[in-house]
Amino acid sequence: MSLLKLNLTGFRNINQASIKPDAKINVILGNNGSGKSSLLEAIHYLGLGRSFRTHLTSRVVQHGEKEFVLFAECQPQEDMIAIGLQKSKSSETELRIDGQKAERLAELAGLLPLQLIHPESFTLLSSGPKSRRQFVDWGVFHVEPEFFQVWAKTTRLLKQRNALLKAGKRYSELAYWDKEFATQSTLIARMRSDYLEQLRPILTAALADFLPEYEFDVRYHQGWDKDIDLAELLQHNFGRDQQLGYTSVGPQKADIRIRANGVPAHDILSRGQLKLAVCAMRLSQGLFLSQHSDKQCTFLIDDFSSELDDSKRKLLAQYLIESRAQVFVTAIDQSQVTAFLTESCKMFHVEHGKLIEF
């Protein structure tokens, strides 16, 4: 995958901008508040249909404008694909792929696989399990063609079951839904587990490179006891779930549990070390994708020097350059990104929302 062209209109403080990125390394320099992170945010929208900085579209649309418009040309394999995305302040969305109206933002994920590393990345390990499930599901989505359909069906079944629980229905009215929910949930658990087992060698090697002072253990918890049939467990937990008003076991409770020297990582690692661990996690997923599919990941690195000393910056840059992936990295000063400055890289400067290649 390579992003060939990107146009932005009315996005944050960028009124109008157009760039033709390098297929490998792209460095964006600028002071805080200049708009350099907005460029990464725009690419993130084109890959995932949402911002990594806010859930409010009104904050992304430029002041005085009604909507923002993004246009990109990308090359997943041999043929070039055009993507157009428009979102209004009220979050009304229009998505076009090769000129044809697309109904689901999820279609973007298959076209532009993204991995993001930014100053708040450490929260992947310090926050709740939802973000770690999303981490796993990103990987499974790109290597298991059936995953999205199974995941979507399971999500619908879970909503139906929770609605029936809140309505105070008898278990006989949930039995059918439980059987189908258990079947789909077991498929999801198997796909997630298989993916993590395949990812483990790359992930543990990356963790050892970034944090050699620790011994890491990575385990997957599927959301219920693996030795108990989920359908039986759902029936057994019916009374409790009815009191709670939601389903207490299932793939929606899955998590990755990462320990450093036998202790939960978020309890023993500093904020900077947590970010290094997340760098290893994100990089390993991108490397795995390129090794096990015909796709190539695009990496977005916001505020490259944040929390990283010089040796770790060089290590991260080395990983990214050797991955041969397309990379967009932001920094305040050129001295912070010397490890990225190869002959073929492109450099851009952002000031007051104006984007200039130099």
Write up this protein.
- With 358 residues, the protein is α/β, with parallel strands linked by helices.
- 41% of the residues lie in helices and 23% in strands.
- The protein contains 11 helices and 15 strands.
- The chain has helices spanning 36-48, 106-111, 123-126, 129-143, 147-166, 175-210, 230-236, 238-244, 265-268, 271-292, 310-323; strands spanning 3-11, 14-19, 25-29, 67-74, 81-88, 93-97, 100-102, 114-117, 216-221, 255-260, 263-264, 298-301, 326-331, 346-351, 354-357.
- Strand 12, helix 11 (310-323) and strand 13 form a beta-alpha-beta unit.
- The longest helix is centred in the middle third of the chain and has 36 residues, at 175-210.
- The protein is globular and about 70 Å long.
Briefly note the structural class of the backbone.
alpha/beta
**Ends: how far apart?**
24 Å
Strand order of the largest sheet: 2-1-4-5-6-7
| Shape label | globular
Counting DSSP H or I runs of 4 or more residues, the number of helices is 11
Oligomer state of the chains in this structure: single chain
Tell me about the biggest sheet?
6 strands, antiparallel
What's the quick description here?
By secondary structure, this protein is an alpha/beta fold. It has helices spanning 36-48, 106-111, 123-126, 129-143, 147-166, 175-210, 230-236, 238-244, 265-268, 271-292, 310-323, and strands at residues 3-11, 14-19, 25-29, 67-74, 81-88, 93-97, 100-102, 114-117, 216-221, 255-260, 263-264, 298-301, 326-331, 346-351, 354-357.
Summarize the SSE layout with pairings.
Blueprint: E1 3-11, E2 14-19, E3 25-29, H1 36-48, E4 67-74, E5 81-88, E6 93-97, E7 100-102, H2 106-111, E8 114-117, H3 123-126, H4 129-143, H5 147-166, H6 175-210, E9 216-221, H7 230-236, H8 238-244, E10 255-260, E11 263-264, H9 265-268, H10 271-292, E12 298-301, H11 310-323, E13 326-331, E14 346-351, E15 354-357
Helix pairs in contact: 4-6, 4-10, 5-6, 6-7, 6-10, 10-11
